[in-house]
Every structure is written in C-alpha cells, then in structure tokens.
Write a structure and sequence with these properties.
This protein is α/β, with parallel strands linked by helices. The protein has helices spanning 32-43, 57-71, 85-98, 124-154, 180-199, 235-238, 242-249, 264-271, and strands at 23-27, 47-52, 75-79, 106-109, 160-165, 204-211, 216-218.
Length: 281
Amino acid sequence: MVLAAHPNPSSPVLSHFSLAGKTALVTGGTRGIGLEVARGLAEAGAKVAILYTSTKPEDADKTASEISAATGVATKAYRCNVTSQEEVESVMALVTKELGEGTLDIVVANAGIATHHPGLEYTPTQFKEIMDVNLNGAFYTAQAAGRIFEKQVKEGGRKGNVVFTASVSAILVNVPQKQAAYNASKAAVVQLARCLSVEWVDFARVNCVSPVSNHVLISEGQGADHESKGFIATDMLDIHPEEWRKIWFGMIPGGRLCEPAELKGAYVFLASEASSYMTGK
C-alpha cells in the first residue's frame, strides 16, 4: 500500500492549496458548516456539487448559483437523501459524470442532525434516526466515493480524498443537553475515518474534522481536554434554550462562538496537496 505522493512538493506553498481542475462534493452543503466548506472549496478552484435533503430545491439552486457567481467555478445543487445507499450511489455517479466530466476528486461527508433526549427515554426510532443520518449516511457517502476513486485509480486516473465532519462531541460529553446518540454517532465517524484511511490508502486519503469554537480538532483531538469545548454558530444552536447558551459561554475559553466560515480553511487544507502526507487524521 502506497500513499499518493505530492506531485511537486518544492512548488510555492500557496500552490499546494489550489484545487483548480478538481471536482468536489459536499453533503449537507446548503447551510451551516457544509455551506462554508462548499464555498471554501470553490474559492480554492474546485467545481462543487452541494447535496441537500430538506432545503427547498429553488433555495439550493440559488445558493449554488451565488457560489458560482462569486468564485467563477461551476457549482450545482443535487437533492440526495444520505440515508439511502442507492440514492447516494446514484447521485454521486451523476455528479461525477455531469459536473466532473468523468472524474471525482474530493468528497466531504458533512450531513448531520442532532436531537436531545435523556438516555433512558430514547425511543428506537429517535436513536435510529440519528445513526441513519450521522453514521450510516456518512458511511454510504464515503463508500460511494471510495468505489469511484478505486475505479479511477485502476483506470490510471487520480486518487481521491474523503473528509468527514465529526464533532468535538466525539471525545467530550456536552452539557447540559443530553445527546448520547449524537455523541456516539460522531465518535463512530472518527473511528470510521481511521479505519477507511488504512483500507483505502492505495486510492484515497481519508481524514476527519471535529470542529470546536476555539480550535479545530483533526482526528484524535490532540491538544484538547475537558475544559476546551465550544460551539459553531449554525442554525443547530438557534433552537436551544437560552439557559443552555449561557452555560456554554461560561465553558468557552475564547468567549465566543465560531463562525462556520472560520472552518473552511481546515477543509481546504485536507482536500488539497497541502496535506498530501496526511491520512487517518
């Protein structure tokens, strides 16, 4: 097994971050972290497919058009239910053919949901819903990408790149909200990324981002402890009670929430040749 080499490691450093000529796909790409990741990848030069489920089609198309107009690269929205393996396979094949003209380079498995229930009160349906989207959906997305990447390499094409969005909740217990299912799903995503990075080293790099408000944990969350936690300012937080938000702010060393756009550089780094010797992180 051989990790793909950087094509020109001696080139000027900013060129290592360029995604020009590449095609990327982001699940959950019409809002929150996914939207900013899609924007960042496009700003770095990649054509981007943004996948969505609950967003209105006209709103998703408008978002894609705005990114394309701002960056000058093709961006297109595709509806996809990530809990359906068949649908994920079908949409990813369409993106590869339609937007990538036969090639896919980068896939960000970002779609996720969160609910809050005491552990003793979770119903099977509530627990399954979280796992279906956050874990199964992430796996189906990576699996479909992996099959495309493996085929590309066998045919003499480029190796691929998978980036998962996990969470600091994979290694810390959030309070005061009770969200054992969400935390467990994100911990599973981190381990999934590690496993696939070893299995797929011949045809893809696989890495994982666990966002926090004061820094971004890559893989194992090195440098973090139980005092260093935080939150990203997405619409996931808007529904929570004010008393929860007050508790959170008292636990954030940086004293503020993180704007989703502050994370896009980490994803561009992992999607680009700037991280060519990084996999399983």
